[in-house]
Amino acid sequence: MSAGTPLRVLLVDDSIDERERYAEYLRTRGFCTLQAATAHDGFRMAADLAPAVVVTDIKLPGSEDGLALTSRLKHDERFLPKPCEPAELEAAVVEMVGQRA
User: Based on C-alpha coordinates, what's the Rg of the chain?
Assistant: First the structure.
């Protein structure tokens, strides 16, 4: 990513209220947010759009849950438990991105 480009964060959660809460907060903090309601859609979006971070709920509708999604995406298995405060989510995203830089 070039300097000044907002980091993309993909939020995967079947609760639209939870997704919107985190998305709105992260947008106000300068992140670009993407949203998906199922593991299937989350995987497709991650593959197509290559977000810097994927935040997923554990319980998702359909045949795949958040843990399976995480495994498929080959991310670290360190999770920020939900519900959490939006500021905690921001700190975790910044820390994860910093570790990969």
Answer: 13
